[in-house]
Specification:
The structure is a homodimer.
Chain A (H helix, E strand, L loop, with lengths): L9 H14 L12 H8 L3 H13 L3 E4 L3 E4 L3 H15 L4 H22 L2 H19 L4 H18 L3 H17 L3 H9 L2 H16 L3 H27 L1
Antiparallel strand pairs in A: 1-2
Helix pairs in contact in A: 1-3, 2-3, 4-8, 5-7, 5-8, 5-10, 5-11, 6-7, 6-10, 7-9, 9-11, 10-11
Organism (chains A, B): Romboutsia sedimentorum
Pfam families (chains A, B): FCD, GntR
Keywords (chains A, B): DNA-binding, Transcription, Transcription regulation
């Protein structure tokens, strides 16, 4: 049997050419691409195919198409990956357990890296979130603020891990979390909000990071994640009744 | 100040409409989309915009466009995510340490899940890879076979974890690993191949999974990952001299 010589569509070949120049370093962040007319002449393909290729790269977060100015190389992993993941999750009949497990994969390692890499400034920023959490336990709690503080804490942790790949993957998983378990924090906090569960667990994680103790940070995060899984399951079961 | 009413491009609105129907479950895997002409009439936009939107969804792995047959909903996370990640990695001047750390994030949790979920059949399949590894230690080793067995072992582990989201994310990280540290396995195996490092470490992981001991499996994987990180660093340093 013979191999097909090229089953690639024209716009895919356009993408490949641009991709190749990014991967070999010829095209860098901020660079402006030649105009669509020039690209069409250089690659000897229709402007429609050029435009289709550029649209794809734009949606992937690799090209920023500014009206009247042209197409620029950028890199925005958030824009690029979130939506396909949500669709693929839905098309595969994913469950909230899949998402919680994925989240745990990240949180547990992030907290270890954070304990190894937190600077004094990082610790102070983390502490200020913790202080706000403590305040919330002393007054009738405001759910919106608590949800926001929770998010802030976990996002701060990943930025302290200082690995932008892990941060990017974590942000993808967070979007899935927000899109499909959007009311997760809400439900858990409504039903299980208490000093122990939220303030004390987060504070224990913060203290382990401040003390540069990755194993303890891991243990504390694990306890926190176990409570979240259990609480979400109970909150959901409760609702189903 | 007023808010912009719609700064979205037409093709982005086309994507959003299709995406919405996937997310609310109206469109399922295998469903055929209306023809481009029909879509253009229904959405009241040009066929060019319809085609641009469909191209994007095709490259994301959500639509399979079969010539002469039409556009079908599919879900292929591999196709969808690998290439943008590679480009974004390159554009952000990522390093091999970022990738190895990301990989560790997955491997460590995967092995715990695998220890909890491995069926007898899974264990037998894992054991047959281990048996092949053992054989390789008894004869002059064939690098290609060893590299392949190593890949097979790690891919089998993630499938045993039985969470397709984690599997998808792991596959994305594997592609980064292969694209940017493509010679990593090769280098490490050439320089550090020995019974202890490769066969015995993998065997210890296998035994922990067979014995349904997630904490031991985690410890053994951690040791394995530490050797890989150290070996890759040494192999690379050595080469730089």
């Amino acid at each position: 049997m013979f191999n097909s010589i090229s089953s690639k569509k024209v716009y895919e070949q356009v993408i490949e050419q641009i991709q190749q120049r990014i991967l070999n370093g010829e095209l860098k962040k901020g660079d402006k691409l030649p105009s669509e007319r020039e690209l069409s002449e250089q690659m000897d393909v229709s402007r429609t195919s050029i435009r289709e290729g550029i649209r794809v790269l734009e949606t992937m977060g690799v090209i920023d198409s500014k009206q009247g100015e042209g197409n620029f190389i950028c890199s925005n992993i958030d824009k690029s990956l979130i939506e396909p993941l949500s669709m693929i999750f839905k098309l595969n009949d994913g469950t909230w357990k899949d998402i919680l497990e994925l989240r745990e994969v990240f949180e547990l390692q992030i907290v270890k890296l954070a304990a190894l890499r937190a600077t004094e400034k990082d610790c102070m920023e983390l502490k200020s979130i913790i202080d706000e959490m403590r305040k919330e336990t002393e007054i009738p709690y405001n759910k919106k603020i608590v949800v926001l503080l929770d998010q802030k804490f976990h996002n701060k942790l990943v930025s302290i891990s200082k690995n932008y790949l892990i941060e990017s993957f974590f942000l993808m998983s967070s979007k899935l979390f927000e899109n499909f378990i959007e009311d997760a924090r809400d439900k858990i906090i409504s039903k299980y909000w208490s000093k122990e569960i939220l303030f004390e667990k987060h504070n224990a994680i913060y203290e382990a990071i401040r003390d540069k103790n990755p194993d303890l940070a891991y243990e504390k995060m694990k306890e926190h994640m176990e409570i979240i899984g259990k609480s979400y399951m109970e909150a959901t079961l409760f609702e189903d009744c």
